[in-house]
Design brief:
Distance between the termini: 53 Å
Strand order of the largest sheet: 1-2
InterPro entries: Thioredoxin-like_sf
């Protein structure tokens, strides 16, 4: 995935002879949803849609990948027979409940015998992941995922549990408080300078106030998504403060020398 333009990407793809699939994420939606702050960044997803590893791609090796292939379908989706086109479209649309029923009616023995189990585990993973988001107070990601999770379990017993979890998004006090925290973090980050000149013009008292505020937030939401987001922002603010202090000190020395 890249946030760069097609004009910048295509020549690089051709020059490097890239053979792997690639796609565009111009607004960085995927990066934000996964909490990625640095690139390159690799995410390893098992056959059931669960993230089982993440980090710098240079540290990912075959030993980490091989065990996860055991339950994968041998035939990749893009090579399924023509009669399985509706099943493929249904899975791509995220309608797993409907796809489970369709999979059991396939002519292909592999799809008929293995696909229902694969899809069932995809559903389990979706529900478990959504539940974890709610418990982690990761409210923005949960809200963004709620529709797709509901669609995935439509017609399945898990639909009632997902509906209950979605209801919590609208009436749970802790989740409401978490949403305010994320909004405040976004507000603070929007106020962070993006140039050297703006950084040097920033009031350090204001910056220190942000740090104190977010340190208190991190303590209030320890071990939860809002707390981690607050801690990460404090780290960025602390680096910004150190930069400003060093630059101002250097300016003061330069001015003293010129005098």
């Amino acid at each position: 995935m890249t946030s760069e333009s097609k004009e910048d990407t295509e020549p690089w793809i051709e020059d490097k002879g890239v053979e792997y699939a690639y796609a565009y994420d111009p607004d960085g939606v995927l990066m934000k949803s996964l909490g990625i702050r640095g690139i390159p960044h690799a995410v390893l997803v098992d056959p059931y849609g669960q993230i089982v590893w993440r980090g710098h791609p240079m540290t990912l090796d075959a030993d980490a990948v091989a065990p996860l292939l055991a339950d994968a379908l041998e035939t990749p989706m893009w090579e399924w027979p023509a009669e399985a086109s509706r099943l493929r479209e249904t899975i791509v649309a995220g309608k797993f409940g409907m796809a489970i029923k369709m999979a059991g009616e396939q002519q292909s023995e592999e799809l008929r015998t293995k696909a229902p189990s694969m899809l069932r585990k995809l559903v389990d993973g979706k529900v478990a992941g959504f539940t974890a988001m709610i418990e982690d107070l990761d409210v923005n990601v949960a809200e963004a995922s709620a529709g797709s999770v509901a669609l995935a379990v439509e017609g399945l017993p898990e639909a009632d549990k997902v509906a209950s979890l979605r209801a919590r998004l609208g009436n749970d006090e802790k989740l409401a408080a978490a949403k305010k925290v994320f909004a405040r973090i976004d507000e603070i980050r929007a106020g962070m300078p993006d140039t050297r000149e703006k950084a040097l013009a920033l009031d350090l008292e204001k910056l220190n106030g942000w740090i104190d505020e977010l340190e208190a937030t991190a303590e209030d939401f320890a071990e939860k998504a809002p707390g981690r987001a607050a801690t990460s922002t404090v780290e960025d603010l602390d680096r910004l403060r150190n930069f400003i202090e060093k630059e101002r000190a250097a300016q003061a020395r330069d001015q003293g020398g010129s005098e």
